[in-house]
Design a protein that fits this description.
Elements lengths: L2 H13 L4 E2 L2 H8 L12 E3 L4 H14 L2 E5 L18 E5 L6 E5 L4 E5 L4 H10 L2 E2 L12 H6 L7 H4 L6 E8 L4 E4 L13 H4 L7 E9 L1 E2 L3 E9 L2 H15 L3 E8 H10 L13 E9 L3 H14 L5 E4 L3 H19 L4 E2 L2 E3 L5 H15 L4 E6 L5 E7 L6 H5 L2 H14 L15 H7 L2 H14 L12
Length: 469
């Protein structure tokens, strides 16, 4: 029996039959990325049922030099959770059995959860306790909180509540050598040295495995108001954003911009998505305010003045929760709808909010010159500067030939974003897809610091090898 085989046998003994998958067919859902960009291989998929089990598995892997790819719901879009062990010298470690909500403390406004709890279940548990957990994104019905934290997920309410890292008070982490760091403290003030939790949030499982977290809860809003407005250009919409900030303050929780093409394909492919206006417009904005019961008055006042000033052409404020959900359905439909329009070259970028209009103008001209007939699908959380600048292939174009332009167009857009003081990865992370971009755009000092941390915490390079750096 080889050393690797012996290690795998010992790992199987730790997790038991419920936590062990080795048949190729059963492993397949864990080995491919949602968009089909990456297909991996592994010796086994391992699902520990406790933090202690995770620690034992990592201790065995570290000793044997066996690679470990941590995986939550496998909903990532940059290949960060896809294994690549062509010689079978690594495993996928799924957190799906670490799925307990350990504690809810309404007075402290915290919830302690294990890494494998599905995000939507956390949202529901918070609601049942009379509170709010605000992290919300398209995959919330299947993504798991450990993955959300390890990628520092964003979502639609970053404008008010921040990214995933802003919603965490404490972590429990298993290090590469099997040691357990218990940082599950529900404290809002703890000024005792380095804030270790921030090392692991956003590190995509390359430094250790998050096994549990203390999450911040918030008061459940008394009122939620949703509106859709339309107009001519992004700069006018940004003027509306500023007015809403001035008038509503922190009650402004979402400001989602969508261009006309995004609306068209949503209506075409998703029955729940319908443009409520009588005629088409260049830009649309979905707005959400939440807070005290007077937020509707604020919304009506700001949008009414914007109409008078010609900033927007029309607006619809939802009069029921069902209508609010219908408006959100338009925004939520865009990623699915774009799949039906052929090949898509995607960009998850951010720029300063004040530069969004300029970015869209310059970027659109660049890609239209390079790819005649390209259809621009620009949408996203523009209230925090995050734009999904996706490029659908021209009608009738060959999909594979079109996608050959991916790297060239990515560099054009990413160069522009960085020149404007922005980021080439706003919320999806680095994974495999953007590892080259990280090396291209980060300074030598930043790269050296990241490599130093990686070497210190994972000297054998077993944690998600080949990802990020």
């Amino acid at each position: 029996m080889t050393k690797q085989t012996d290690t795998l046998v010992r790992i199987r003994d730790v997790v038991g039959p419920k936590g062990w998958i080795e048949s190729e067919a059963e492993m397949q859902p864990y080995l491919q990325e949602e968009r089909g960009l990456y297909q991996g291989t592994a010796a086994a998929v391992v699902s520990p049922a406790s933090t202690d089990d995770v620690a034992q598995v990592l201790k065995l892997c570290n000793k044997a030099g066996l690679g470990v790819v941590p995986q939550g719901g496998n909903t990532g879009l940059v290949g960060g959770g896809v294994p690549d062990f062509p010689e079978g010298n690594g495993i996928v470690l799924s957190t799906q059995r670490l799925n307990a909500i350990r504690n809810i403390d309404p007075l402290n406004q915290t919830m302690t959860v294990e890494a494998g709890v599905i995000l939507a279940h956390i949202q529901q548990a918070a609601e049942d306790a009379g509170a709010l957990f605000p992290l919300s994104l398209g995959a919330e019905g299947s993504c798991r909180i450990g993955g959300n934290l390890s990628t520092n997920a964003g979502g639609v309410q970053v404008l008010r509540y921040g990214n995933a890292r802003d919603l965490v008070l404490g972590l429990e982490v298993v290090l590469a050598d099997g040691r357990i760091w218990d940082g599950l403290r529900g404290l809002r003030k703890d000024n005792t040295g380095y804030d270790m939790k921030h090392l692991f949030m956003g590190s995509e499982g390359t430094l250790g495995i998050i096994t549990a977290a203390v999450l911040k809860l918030y008061p459940r809003p008394q009122a939620r108001e949703v509106a859709l407005c339309c107009g001519g250009d992004a700069d006018a919409m940004l003027n509306v954003l500023q007015r809403l900030r001035d008038g509503a303050g922190e009650a402004l929780s979402a400001f989602e911009v969508m261009n006309r093409f995004a609306i068209e394909i949503s209506e075409k492919h998703v029955p729940a998505a319908n443009d409520p206006f009588d005629k088409p417009h260049n830009q649309y904005v979905l707005i959400e305010l939440s807070g005290h019961r007077d937020v509707r008055d604020t919304l009506e006042t700001v949008l009414g003045q914007a109409l008078e000033d010609g900033l927007i052409a029309d607006a619809l404020i939802a009069t029921s929760r069902a209508q609010a959900d219908q408006l959100w359905a338009i925004r939520d439909a865009i990623p699915e709808a774009q799949k039906h329009e052929g090949g898509s070259i995607k960009h998850d970028v951010s720029v300063p909010v004040s530069s969004v209009g300029e970015f869209l103008t310059i970027a659109s001209a660049l890609v239209e010159a390079e790819l005649p007939g390209v259809r621009i699908c620009a949408f996203g959380h523009v209230g925090d500067g995050n734009i999904h600048f996706n490029l659908s292939q021209p009608p009738g174009a060959d999909r594979e030939a079109y996608l050959q332009n991916w790297d060239r167009i990515n560099q054009l857009i990413h160069d522009l974003v960085v020149d404007m003081g922005g980021s080439f990865s706003a919320e999806h992370g680095i994974g495999q897809l953007k590892r080259g971009d990280l090396a291209r755009y980060k300074s030598d000092v930043e790269m050296d610091l990241m490599r130093t941390l990686k070497k210190a915490l994972d000297p054998s390079n077993i944690m998600n090898p080949g990802k990020v750096i």
